């Protein structure tokens, strides 16, 4: 007898709801929404920090799912499909000339415990580093934000990420390298500045 882990059973349930949605069952659309809305919101906020835009984009994704249900592909990974649809919707809303916005991402720093004064310094440096990381992420193009989100937050493989971004695996590696390199440069400048002080 084969036992499925929780994520496998959730994925299978999502596939069942997807098939039912394609047949016009509104309750399945609602079930997919309830199962994924939290993850979609968190994902959307990491791409763009405008909460209203993200919420509206999620609603639009589900309206489109219902309106075009008969044209939906049967063979999809539901969560990945929704992420890609949301990303496309946000980019469409932002347009090509939109300003890049901050990603909500806080880096975790270990603080060495030595003295109240040192703790205060460490806290301040950690806060400044987190702020610098947010600024560095804000400066990344949206596609680079996406690749960081998929690979490091959603823990997707390069293959899955390339499918979601609709680019080759080689291009995915290049995009990830550019994003990480840009972040490293920004943080390195900050750390060097801290040591000089």
TrEMBL record:
Listed name of the protein: RNA polymerase sigma factor, sigma-70 family
Any GO BP: DNA-templated transcription initiation
SUPFAM superfamilies to which the protein is assigned, alphabetical: Sigma2 domain of RNA polymerase sigma factors, Sigma3 and sigma4 domains of RNA polymerase sigma factors
Chain segments annotated as coiled-coil in the UniProt record: none
UniProt keyword annotation of Nucleus present: no
Molecular function terms, GO-annotated: DNA binding; sigma factor activity
Classification of source organism: Bacteria, Pseudomonadati, Bacteroidota, Cytophagia, Cytophagales
Similarity-based family: Belongs to the sigma-70 factor family. ECF subfamily.
PANTHER family: RNA POLYMERASE ECF-TYPE SIGMA FACTO (PTHR43133), RNA POLYMERASE SIGMA-70 FACTOR ECF SUBFAMILY (PTHR43133:SF46)
Segments forming domain RNA polymerase sigma factor 70 region 4 type: 132-173
Record keywords: Sigma factor, Transcription, Transcription regulation
């Amino acid at each position: 007898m084969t036992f499925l882990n929780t994520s496998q059973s959730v994925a299978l349930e999502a596939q069942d709801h997807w098939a039912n949605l394609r047949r016009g069952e509104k309750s399945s659309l609602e079930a997919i929404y309830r199962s994924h809305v939290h993850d979609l919101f968190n994902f959307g906020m990491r791409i763009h920090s405008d909460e209203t835009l993200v919420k509206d984009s999620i609603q639009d994704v589900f309206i489109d799912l219902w309106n075009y249900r008969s044209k939906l592909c049967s063979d999809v990974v539901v969560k990945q499909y929704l992420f890609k649809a949301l990303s496309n919707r946000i980019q469409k809303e932002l347009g090509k000339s939109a300003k890049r916005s901050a990603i909500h991402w806080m880096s975790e720093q270990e603080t060495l415990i030595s003295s109240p004064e040192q703790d205060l310094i460490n806290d301040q440096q950690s806060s400044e580093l987190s702020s610098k990381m947010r600024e560095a992420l804000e400066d990344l193009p949206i596609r680079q934000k996406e690749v960081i989100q998929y690979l490091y937050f959603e823990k997707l493989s390069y293959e899955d990420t390339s499918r979601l971004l609709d680019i080759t695996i080689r291009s995915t590696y290049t995009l990830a390298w550019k994003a990480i390199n840009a972040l490293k440069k920004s943080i390195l400048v900050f750390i060097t500045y801290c040591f000089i002080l």
